[in-house]
Amino acid sequence: MVDATELPGASKATSNGSGPESAADKTTAGSTRSGAPSGPRYAQIIGWGYEVPSKVITNHDLEQIVETSDEWIRTRTGIEERRVASDPQETTATLGLAAARKALEVADVHPSKVDLIICSTSSPEHIFPSTASIIQDGLGATNAGAFDLSAACSGFVYALSMARGHILAGDAEYVLVIGAETLSRLVDWTDRNTCVLFGDGAGAVLVAASSVPGGIIASELGSDGSGADLLIVPAGGSAIPPSLETVSSGNHFIKMDGKAVFRFAVRVMSDATKAVLARAGLSTDDVDLVIPHQANLRIVQNSVLKQLRIPEEKVFVNLQRYGNTSTASIPIALCEAIKAGKVKPGDHLVFVGFGAGLTWAACAVQWSVPTDRQEADWWRATRRQAGYQAAAARSMWRRAVRWVYQVWPDDPEGSPRRDIEPPKERETPLNGARGGDD
Ligand code: COA
Q1: How far apart are CA 174 and CA 44, in angstroms?
Q2: Which of 93, 200, 104, 215 has the alpha carbon at shortest distance from 146?
Q3: Is pLDDT of 37 > 60?
Q4: Would you kindly state where each structural domain of the chain is located, as residue ranges?
Q5: Is 50 exceeded by the pLDDT of residue 392?
Q6: Coil, strand, or helix at residue 247?
Q7: Which protein residues touch ligand 1 with a CB less than 6 Å away?
Q8: Which of 2, 62, 285, 386 has the most Cβ atoms closer than 10 angstroms to its Cβ?
Q9: CATH class belonging to 4-366
Q10: Which among 353, 225, 356 has a CA at the least distance from the CA of 299?
């Protein structure tokens, strides 16, 4: 458990000589995954990072693809450009992995210390296995459980709530929460109703058990499945399995009733914010920064600004540059808010989102760690990079061992099977994943 003296204002010498930026990577006696917690536990966000593809698609670029205009998109949504994973090697897992590495780097926590990885996504690498497991392998997080969470654009806030629960129950010391999407792969680029809205990206935070009061103090989760068809990818699951017909009819693309989603969003964004503040024992005046789901500027204006009367300077918006990155939008915005100096220890933050399901979610956070992160020194960066190379080698080794067991017959007299291909060096694009090496 991260000790109280190791968080804001602390000047305690570090046990491993890693310097004052090391807010974690130092567990204290008395807290364990299996045993009962020895004192009050809190779930603190101690690391953060994001990754977006380099390819920018502007509204003017979209004018060349569908019948739309920069003016329409900007006035109806606030979006000016978005990032798109145009390189096939760039996937939900590579973006999530890069963001996760950065979060661990900020926290200065080794991947082997992570107990649980939750990857929220609606554009997973595959139906199964989970994208979280693929990221776990890429990180070399050998002691972590991993699963994907499906709650669409609300998913990151759902996952934060799960992380808090695991930590408060004493089941985990470090939980990595990732929101990652490549929705550009599910968008119909001939449908102007949807293709102008979405973008790709990933954000991650490391949540740690701490004795410092604060952290993720309350959450509010909601769902109304009667609105399931308002925002949906109809085909590809068990209800409508993929077929030539589903592909030719475009039913594997995102379908949306924009107006209905808009009305729902405006209502739940303010209701969920009020509910989570009540749970946390806070009023809107206590809030220092709201980080809303970055879907549409008019939704933010009509809910958080108008209904809750929270002033504009207390609401962080970056959707003009990324569009709606679904579950990744809140952690990406958090990272940019931190970079812009808008988050300080002691601040009260609200994360609030909505999405397909229909779902909504809000978390109230009392921020506790310094945000003026120092650059890692050369030795630490090199060691970290070596760790990721070792993780790739370990993954390859395990696949090779599995292949040998498959090929070699149980009968010692028999001959080895020649029909089973040896594992390739890159079965996933993860070896080429960027990030974590800067
Ligand atoms: N470019 C130009 N015109 C467009 C357009 C586009 N990209 N998309 C729609 N239009 C047209 C419509 O066809 C319609 O034309 P019509 O009046 O001739 O029928 C007109 O613009 C108005 O469409 P409307 O649907 O009323 O616009 P709107 O003000 O509701 O804005 C959305 C549309 C999608 C931007 C808005 O409804 C929205 O943001 N909804 C929420 C979506 C969302 O956040 N989804 C993700 C949830 S996580």
Answers
A1: 10
A2: 93
A3: no
A4: 4-366, 378-432
A5: yes
A6: helix
A7: 68, 72-73, 76-77, 153, 192-193, 196-197, 231, 256, 258-259, 261-262, 265, 295-296, 324, 355
A8: 2
A9: alpha beta
A10: 353
